[in-house]
Amino acid sequence: MTDSVHNNGVAAASDTDVIVIGAGLSGLVTATELTASGKRVILLDQEPAASLGGQAWWSFGGLFLVDSPEQRRLKVKDSFDLAFADWLGSAQFAPGAERGEGPDRFGYRWAKGFVEFAAGDLRPWLHAKGVRWFPLVQWAERGGYPAGDHGNSVPRFHVTWGTGPAVVAPFVVAAREANRAGLLDLRFRHRVTSLVTTDGRVTGVRAEVLADDGVGRGEPSTRTVTGEVELSAQAVVVASGGIGANHDLARAHWSADAGRLPARMLSGVPDSTDGLMLGVASASGAALVHEDRMWHYPEGIANHSPVWSQHGIRILPGPSSLWLDADGGRLPGPLFPGFDALGALRHVTTRGDDHSWFVLNKTIMEKEFALSGSEQNPDLTGKSVPLLLERVRGRSVPVRTFAEQSEEFLWASTPAELAAKMNALTEATEGSAGHIDADALAALITARDAQVATGLGKDPQVVATSAARHFIVDKAIRVSPPRALTDPQDGPLLAVRLSVLTRKTLGGIWCDETGRALTPAGDVLEGLWAVGEAAGFGGGGSHGHRALEGTFLGGCLFTGRTTGRALAEAL
User: Fold this and answer.
1) Which Pfam families match (predicted)?
2) d(Cα 456, Cα 375) in Å, to the nearest integer?
3) Is 280 in a helix, a strand, or coil?
4) Comparing C-alpha atoms, which of 316, 315, 294 is closest to residue 247?
5) Calpha distance 499→264 (Å, rounded)
6) Distance (Å, whole) CA 374 – CA 380
7) How far apart are CA 47 and CA 187, in angstroms?
8) What digits encode the pLDDT tens for the residues 25-45?
9) CA atoms of 374 and 73, how far apart (whole Å)
């Protein structure tokens, strides 16, 4: 692919059928669906060519699939009805959404369409493009609540063999083919600053041309402006992502009834996820809805080898670790590791804390800890069976590297020693607060171990952990055998400091069921469309208040395909 910027840094205005803003997964899917129909597309992105694919490239590659062959091989019984019931229990859409009423009406339609997609075309569509999946389906967001409330009733998290890069790859191939055919013009280092409107219709964009920068994928790039350009088109599609790297914006929109997002946070997305285009779309008359709905994680740890600013990695935990607040109090049930990410996050933020703790031991870490991101999973990303066997044996190199290099992994022989190290780390962090009482920590561990020793127990987390081992995948690779934390064969003890890790925006540009942007009055803003995270993964918020995981990449795929096809037909 070539960047069509002239040597003087100013690109001449070009007419095209569609301008797509953002070369991440949703933008690539939209653009290639359009070019497959013979439409001419200019695809703009503010980052250098090295970052083609956006956030999706860095992802774990998890996809929410329903009643898949992988599930059936594991004797998991799933269906559209069960999955959609789980979705609605998690989303908690405003009353009337199912009847086409209220601000959630389009989010509801996109949600239903997505679950139908996940139970139908998603897998065969990707399979035909060469995408494959790790056969052991994972159980994310277990919920732990009664039927009808948040959580996945069964495992649905399908990890792509090759992780995020393998999801992105077929669409990069299609984009290159479209480029060679003269249908797709991909222009890097173009930052859109405003939309052009003519008689109330969006007819193009104005963009700054940024200086060339040879930084690597995901690394912060210069914002030096070398020129400007105005481009015209029959339609413009916003595929620019959310606000995860803009911590000030995230804090400003965070729901007041959930306390506050802390001053010290980590970023789970590159710096370019800045929310700029949401403001640009709003300034041109598009409605932004559900801006207070976000999907951040409470289990972040600072990356020992950061790529972008405040780069954090999420621990994907099994259910055995004790989860403590900043003062050593146990998080209430069912806020166990891996059950309800947003519930745990809101518990932290309503307390006003900037961190929480996992307390466990070496054996639990080796069995239950995984890390988010393609770069933290070289076995799956590199499709390496030998490395995968090392993970199964509890010798994951990335986890071991964090355990050895991270200042947030604290090892000790006794609870008292562990508490002293936890307090020392908190005291050394500017602006952080919290204190762990050594005697209280020891008593908590003793009480937990006594429950495990019964072989049954009444402690909800102990019971839930035991139940998890009934699923063959959890027993094999994700859930440690129930033993005392202080069992000598499993030591030493470990505490891991967890920070808030920003990630996804669940709200966004309000759109109808085809992706056309709407005004605050609910009218179509002609010429403007939105996909992916910028559209709240469909309709301005297909997830409602909570996500079931594996639904973000899937949401980018679904919105890009649906809107790309609808727009191609409309032109």
Assistant:
1) FAD_binding_2
2) 39
3) helix
4) 294
5) 8
6) 8
7) 10
8) 999 999 999 999 999 999 999
9) 26
Q: Are 34 and 564 in contact (CB under 8 A)?
A: yes
Spatial distance between the Cα atoms of 54 and 48, rounded to a whole number of angstroms: 11
Dihedral angle, C-alpha 411, 415, 420, 423, nearest 10 °: 90
What DSSP string runs through 496-540?
EEEEEEEEEE--EE-B-TT-EEE-TTS-EEEEEEE-GGGBTTTTT
* Closest-CA residue to 436 (of 357, 333, 344): 357
Amino acid code (one letter) for 69 = P
What is the pLDDT averaged over residues 442-468?
95
- Is the peptide bond between 334 and the residue preceding it cis, with omega within 30 degrees of 0? yes
What tokens does 45 get? Answer: 């992105």
Mean pLDDT, residues 507-525 taken together: 98
Structure tokens at 183: 């249908």
Consecutive H or E run containing 365: helix 362-368
Contact 25, 532 (CB under 8 A): yes
Q: What pLDDT, in 10s, does the model give residues 275-333? A: 999 999 999 999 999 999 999 999 999 999 999 999 999 999 999 999 999 999 999 99
Query: Whole-structure pTM over 0.85, yes or no?
Result: yes
| Whether the Cβ atoms of residue 375 and residue 288 lie closer than 8 Å to each other | no
Q: Are 163 and 60 in contact (CB under 8 A)?
A: yes
Q: What angle do CA 61, 63, 65 make, to 5 degrees?
A: 155
